[in-house]
Design goal:
Blueprint (H helix, E strand, L loop, with lengths): L1 H10 L3 H16 L11 H13 L3 H7 L1 H26 L10 H17 L6 H12 L7 H10 L9 H15 L6 H21 L4 H18 L6 H15 L7 H23 L8 H24 L2 E3 L2 H24 L7 H23 L5 E3 L4 H20 L2 H24 L1
Antiparallel strand pairs: 1-2
Helix pairs in contact: 2-5, 2-12, 6-7, 8-16, 9-10, 9-11, 10-11, 11-12, 12-13, 13-14, 14-15, 14-17, 15-16, 17-18
């Protein structure tokens, strides 16, 4: 068992620093420890003094006492996380932080140009708002009622530029660049162009947490492809989260950040296992089944967060997500190509009709599903219930994946504790 855990940590070396960084951020936010965190530097000082006295080189010390060096690195990571979080909290009070930089202004101008161009389409006000949100994350025209309809259907993620959108744009570009030769120089050029386009699209979309996560993961993956490496998915996800939190520790409390990483983690963990439940090889049935498995895995991972932040969960997501994701897969690239092409381009009017009809279909499907009386259920979690549900989910997954009896009893115990907590909370409330 110990050997297995060691191998897992070697495959995903960034998982432990990520957890330590999160722990440091939570400590500073809950209990300000910036001044006292200097104590965490004592292990590093003690090890350094002892090594100098013994005349040992740093490499020799690391090889001789790996556990001690591990404790030192852990303390340094938590110290840096606390200091970085305290600095980020001070920046919140800076009045100049709200002023956009030059590149942000340029990205905003491109975003408004796209929205203005989309305004030429023959669409209703709601359809214009949906299309602007789908393509460049411009949601100023989105009404609360319109957002609730998408949330009730379980496809609110389509309204925020995320990995789905970045993958579509990058996939369309990869298809265009597939005509290039398969030699190493062209492979590097192809990966470089895809990275630039992904980050450009994320910037135009306002650098939301899901868009940054998707662009960062794609960058790490494409760098691995360029140097002929196969990045480990969980390690790539941990590296992305760590980079984003080092840049801004307070992103940890962003709803989009939490939903995005929870969805991707559970997709990586559960989607392949759900797919294997029914062995489908038919070329017309296998892709829809994989899409259903991905949707179900993402919903399992984000269900507690949706109940905590929004107080509701969709019951029709399996049915609606397939049709709406398919429509969005066709609509987003078509709309962006239509915006990019100059007036008078042959076939532009036909492409405009396609964009308009796809938008009509997407909004109509959302309206139909949201009108169903059982489209969503109202469930409100507090913080204790949120943590408890994820603990139950953790032990339940260990039961399914690892066949652990202890995890089964632990899961049942947690469920019982949550039931008692809910009863006490109801009487106290």
């Amino acid at each position: 068992m110990t050997s297995t855990k060691t191998n897992e940590l070697r495959k995903r070396p960034l998982a432990r620093p990520l957890f330590l960084w999160i722990a440091g951020t939570l400590c500073e936010v809950c209990y300000p420890l910036q001044q006292w965190s200097v104590v965490l530097l004592l292990p590093a000082v003690v090890v350094l003094v002892c090594s100098l006295r013994r005349g040992e080189a740093p490499r020799e010390l690391r090889l001789a006492t790996p556990k001690i060096m591990g404790v030192v690195l852990a303390c340094l990571t938590v110290f840096l996380a606390i200091q970085s979080t305290a600095l980020a909290e001070r920046r919140l009070d800076d009045p100049g932080r709200t002023q956009p930089s030059q590149w942000q202004q340029a990205a905003r101008e491109v975003q408004w140009h796209v929205v203005e161009r989309l305004g030429q389409l023959r669409l209703s006000a709601d359809e214009h708002a949906v299309l602007a949100s789908l393509t460049v994350n411009e949601r100023s025209a989105m009404t609360r009622e319109l957002r609730q309809r998408f949330s009730a259907v379980g496809v609110a993620h389509l309204l925020a530029v995320s990995g789905f959108h970045v993958a579509l744009v990058s996939g369309a570009l990869a298809l265009l660049l597939s005509i290039l030769p398969r030699t190493t120089p062209f492979r590097v050029i192809r990966c470089g162009l895809m990275i630039v386009v992904a980050w450009g699209y994320a910037a135009v979309s306002g650098l939301s947490a899901p868009a940054v996560r998707a662009a960062t993961m794609l960058t790490i993956y494409l760098i691995g492809v360029a140097i002929r490496r196969n990045p480990e998915p969980y390690n790539t996800l941990a590296a992305t989260a760590l980079l984003m939190l080092v840049g801004d520790p307070l992103r940890l409390f962003d709803v989009g950040f939490q939903l995005s990483f929870a969805a991707v983690f559970f997709i990586l963990l559960l989607a392949p296992r759900i797919t294997r439940l029914i062995d489908v090889h038919h070329p017309l049935i296998a892709p829809p089944w994989r899409l259903v498995a991905i949707s179900l895995a993402a919903q399992i991972g984000t269900f507690p967060l949706c109940c905590y932040y929004f107080g509701s969960a969709s019951l029709v997501f399996l049915f609606s997500n397939f049709f709406l994701s398919l429509a969005a897969t066709l609509l987003i690239p078509a709309a962006l190509v239509w915006v990019a092409l100059p007036a008078g381009t042959p076939g532009l009017s036909a492409l405009q009709v396609v964009v308009e009809q796809l938008t009509h279909i997407l909004v109509a499907v959302v309206d139909r599903f949201s009108c169903l009386p059982w489209a969503s259920v109202s469930v409100r979690f507090d913080l204790v219930q949120l943590i408890g549900v994820y603990v139950v989910l953790f032990f339940a997954l260990r039961v399914v994946i690892g066949r652990s009896r202890r995890s089964l009893f632990a899961a049942l115990g947690c469920v019982l504790a949550l039931m008692v907590y809910a009863i006490v909370r109801q009487f106290v409330g």
